[in-house]
Amino acid sequence: MSRDLRYLILADGLFHPEESKTANAVIRYTPERVVGVIDASRAGKTSQDVLGFGGDIPVVATFDEGLALKPNALLIGIAPAGGQLPDSWIQLLSRAIENKLEIWNGLHTFVGDVPELAALAKKHGVTIHDLRRPPAKIQVANGRVRNVKATVVLTVGTDCNIGKMTTQLQLLDAVRGHGIKTKFAATGQTGIIIEGSGVGIDAVIADFIAGAAEKLVLDCAKEADLVLVEGQGSIIHPSYSGVTYGLIHGSLPHAQVMCAQPSRTAINRCEWVKIPPLVDFIKMSEAATSALRPAPVIAVALNTYDLTDDDARRVVDQVARETGLPTTDPVRFGPEPVAGAIAQFHWDRPR
Amino acid sequence: MSRDLRYLILADGLFHPEESKTANAVIRYTPERVVGVIDASRAGKTSQDVLGFGGDIPVVATFDEGLALKPNALLIGIAPAGGQLPDSWIQLLSRAIENKLEIWNGLHTFVGDVPELAALAKKHGVTIHDLRRPPAKIQVANGRVRNVKATVVLTVGTDCNIGKMTTQLQLLDAVRGHGIKTKFAATGQTGIIIEGSGVGIDAVIADFIAGAAEKLVLDCAKEADLVLVEGQGSIIHPSYSGVTYGLIHGSLPHAQVMCAQPSRTAINRCEWVKIPPLVDFIKMSEAATSALRPAPVIAVALNTYDLTDDDARRVVDQVARETGLPTTDPVRFGPEPVAGAIAQFHWDRPR
Known about the structure:
Number of helices of chain A: 12
Oligomer: homodimer
Shape of chain A: globular
Number of domains of chain A: 2
CATH architecture of the largest domain in chain A: 3-Layer(aba) Sandwich
CATH superfamily of the largest domain in chain A: P-loop containing nucleotide triphosphate hydrolases
Order of helices and strands of chain A: EHEHEHEHEHEEHEHHEHEEEHEHEH
């Protein structure tokens, strides 16, 4: 990952704070790697205009305009539900490969499995990174992870796309600042792009979710005293809870950090599932691990991007009061209260 | 499935009440389809000797002895953890195919994906049934299952291999006897073999577990007023809870039937996970669905195969008292108390 990547990000029609999750995170954490974003509906704007960060990174209307920005990789920056590769993109991907752009793909549909694209990539000597392709051999989880000496902290959340990855990435430097050798365990395509390693946990065969999570933690623990695991989904998500529980029970955290968006009262796209009050949800999350290993929720990370500064400050204070836990919006107000809670937990934990 | 199947079951070294789960269930529910079992370590015995049911079905030492019993299909009757296809079986499978035996395989490793076996099957015109191969297109779950008019009842359990499939199969005729048009929704390879349809829910890609469960219930509900869904794993199973939760939240049952084995106090092969007292576990199981749809546990099905008749009767009575729920061992004492509870629930349910 140390080589000079220059991404052109495909986010057509969906470049938006709440939609283009992969694009947004790559721009937030590795803006130096991004030369432009394709979205005809927002062409002429900058990333700063659309997301509120990312500076002058331009939004362009077409692949050809993007090519003029001299990318060396095309990154698929949006993840439609179900992850299917739209047919209309095949032609764009062909052109990218013909122009020697590497392909970075986080969808469930693998670009390398589309025969015409695989053949084209071979012909042009272009690498296709299908980030969700699972490792070849995964064992069933069996609790080996309990022998790990590192402290394992997992972000959990009330819903998808609410800040579980962002919180860990925001925390990373802050926790290291406390003098703890820390590793980020990426479990989704975006985290993998940013970290350069990890396992796309939602893409493994169902029986092996926990096994993949266990292996990831075992691997990360070799290099660190503290492993920050990127959570997925929600324990009440009607579509993805299987992934969530497999990850919780496979990674077997010592502690959890709760991620929530104060303005969100129901599961996105499944509004019939109401999100319980945060204090109750914290109890549910602790109950979710209790039969295997007690993992207290030790801090709260709020996503307040849709609130004013004043409202955000008010809600952070209110949640801290209601839960009795260190609380912050790690993007808006910095990660410190949560980072401090993790460091303290790490030092105090009985071994 | 109506054709004349004559299975030779491969269960080498593992034909046993607690090991050869697939073999045992096929012998219990479709003994007329089984001509013999391969297990050199128990050769000369009968199924009755080994399992306590299955009558004169012989156990033989070798494939050639089995061939003399005139099978027309080889069924892989044991499921090692992880589901990998042992190399030593490849030769046996080759011989089966050369002898025109269909292959019925419930492992995660697909026989049809082993090039030499696929080629051989093609050459001999032999069908390979890879029962865990997922359907081609599965949507992400979105709650469409809430529109189903049929009553959905799911078996859940404290552990794997504890009676979740057996209970539903034992219940089927009894519930139909109450005059309710009922369909069994198979979610595992053994259930699929017996029912002739279903989805191997543990073999789909993690993001689609709930979607596969939802589709299965939608399909079964077209043909029935009551759908009995085969549960999988356990909400506290460190290896398989992701499958369990995906199935629960995808099938969205109206009621649950709790399956437990009184003598089992910890998760099999993961003994570090203790099984909570049944009354507590019932509360945990009801909490597992409460945010999506309340699904009370309405009855208990115990697996008492390792107890004496007297002890079994005593424990059934005790659990009925402690839980306040209709309780039986559906194999030993018949399914009626549980079947009656399901019928009553179906009739009384507010719509």
